Amino acid sequence: MKIKKRLVIFILGFLISCNSKNKSEEKQVEDKLLQSLVRKGVDNKDLKNTFLVILNVLANKNDNFQLFYTEDYMLSFNEDQSIIKLISGANDYQNIVFTLPSNVLPDRLRIDVGSNRNQKVIKIKSLLFRYNDKEVFIPSELISKLLVPNEFVNYRLGEDTYNLLTLNVEDKTIYDPAFTCSPELVRLLLAIK
């Protein structure tokens, strides 16, 4: 009887340790993947100590995109720390470049993806953060993991594998589709400083 009991305890202990080992290995693989997004970029002397955010999107209608940033680890965004870019609707992908003021190193970001209620769908192909000679490049397949949408945005996988964002209009008086940084993205932003 004692042998059976010990055998059961041994098997359970083995299974539990295998399960935690697999989770640990998965976490290590995920951390390596995220760190591989941080890379050495081109050091542009004209943009020394300037943080850039480059969003590659497809938006068919004229609209405006707005980037909010903070430097105090809070999620309280305000108009004083924001940049607005007007875009012309196009049938091709276009880069929206946000250039933060010199020596500003954001720790949290919020990207508002338009105010045109007729836009309905936006596709994001990539997102790039650059500071001096370091950059973080986020391909489309990781956008949904690193950007957290609010209630006005739904992710869908597009036919060309780019993230397809459907914007929720639904007769709401407030319309403000936006993303904030996931904890993983915050760690990546800190890695390029």
Name its key features.
2 domains, alpha+beta, single chain, 193 residues
Summarize the structure.
With about 190 residues, the chain is α+β, with helices and mostly antiparallel strands. The protein is about 25% helix and about 35% strand.
Explained architecture:
This protein has helices at residues 2-36, 140-146, 183-191; strands spanning 38-40, 51-58, 63-70, 82-87, 94-99, 108-112, 121-131, 134-139, 147-149, 153-157, 163-167, 178-181. With 193 residues, the chain is an alpha+beta fold. The protein folds into 2 domains: 2-36; 41-191, no CATH class. The strands form 2 sheets. Strands 1, 2, 5, 7, 8, 10 and 11 form a 7-stranded antiparallel sheet that branches. It has a 5-stranded antiparallel sheet with strand order 4-3-6-12-9. A hairpin with a 2-residue loop joins strand 7 (121-131) and strand 8 (134-139). The model has no long low-confidence stretch (mean pLDDT 80).
Explain the layout of strands and helices.
Layout: H1 2-36, E1 38-40, E2 51-58, E3 63-70, E4 82-87, E5 94-99, E6 108-112, E7 121-131, E8 134-139, H2 140-146, E9 147-149, E10 153-157, E11 163-167, E12 178-181, H3 183-191
Antiparallel strand pairs: 1-8, 2-5, 2-7, 3-4, 3-6, 6-12, 7-8, 7-11, 9-12, 10-11
Radius of gyration, CA atoms, in whole angstroms: 21 Å
Helix content: 25-40%
Rough outline = globular
**Number of DSSP E strands:** 12
Count of the domains = 2
Mean pLDDT: 80
Count of individual helical segments: 3
| Fraction in beta strands | 35-45%
Order of helices and strands: HEEEEEEEEHEEEEH
Largest sheet: 7 strands, antiparallel
- The chain-level structural class is alpha+beta
- Ranges where pLDDT stays below 50 over 5 or more residues in a row are none
| N- and C-termini, Cα separation | 61 Å
